[in-house]
Design a protein that fits this description.
Number of strands: 0
Number of domains: 1
Low-confidence stretches: none
Distance between the termini: 63 Å
Helix content: over 70%
Structural class: mainly alpha
Order of helices and strands: HHH
Largest sheet: none
Length: about 80
């Protein structure tokens, strides 16, 4: 009974994780999370002299910017 209960819990956890991943990792949410993590890391790297956090934050912000830029270009081409 314990083994079945443990398996049931792990399957339930797996199903909830998959549903939440589908919900949170659509394109808009992923872009927002990338930018948020980047801004927070850059701010942390500036407040406390942590060069690694600053550079990683810049990478995340640039990644978010490139995703936004790509979507804007696609929307412009669809209008034409």
């Amino acid at each position: 009974m314990v083994a079945a209960d443990g398996r049931l819990r792990s399957l339930t956890t797996l199903a909830v994780t998959r549903m939440s991943l589908k919900y949170f990792f659509n394109e808009k949410a992923l872009t927002a999370v990338l930018c948020l993590i980047g801004v927070l890391a850059v701010a942390y790297g500036m407040i406390r002299p942590n060069h690694v956090a600053f550079v990683i934050g810049l990478v995340f912000v640039v990644g978010g910017y490139l995703r936004i830029r790509k979507k804007l270009k696609e929307s412009i081409h669809k209008e034409e």
